[in-house]
Amino acid sequence: MCIRDSGTTITESGGLVSQWADKSGNLNHATQSVGADQPSTGVNTLNSLNVVKFDADFMSFNSGISNIKSVIFVSNNLNGSFVNSNISPIISDTVSSNYTFINVNTSDVNYDISIDGASSNTGNASVNGGSLVSGGNINLSQTDAENKAENIWYADYDNAITINDLATQTSASGAVLKGDIAEIILLDYVPTTEVRQKLEVYLQNKWNTPSLP
Description:
By secondary structure, the protein is mainly β. Helix content is 9%, strand content 46%. The chain is built from two helices and 17 strands. The strands form two sheets. It has a 15-stranded antiparallel beta sheet that branches. A hairpin with a 6-residue loop joins β9 and β10 (99-103). The chain is globular.
């Protein structure tokens, strides 16, 4: 399990984040030693709380995190990257097959979230507490503007994945995130409906994202 929020777990210098610490106690910290690739803190807020701003920046989990079965995260201002303007990657590995990204700058009829966990894997996804939808590239009936706005995203995987990076997708020629991440929770299990809904309520109350169903 790995939990990080953007208010109390950041190591920064001059507004640049070198470490985003894991609050779960498992020491799965995200780090970035290269100043030019470090995201920013103290720039943007959500519900008057600090968020981490990625502007074609990324961070890495030094030893990788294995056995990830679900992820839930809060995002805002997503707008693709300079490598692939449609991809806003959240997590990925360093090989090719494990990733989760939000599809932006595309027609509203296209899919909203891709959760190709491992070589044509499928799973389930939802946004803002909506119904779970199954697939690999999943249409959650969001508009492009809604994808870029304040959201709680949830995804789980039919096979556990390993991740090495935050806010970049190596398999998309190094696509990197442009946008804000407020909080991200990585779980080594697929939560029950009750647990997932409790997490969504917690995040909605904290970050004042759109109301849950």
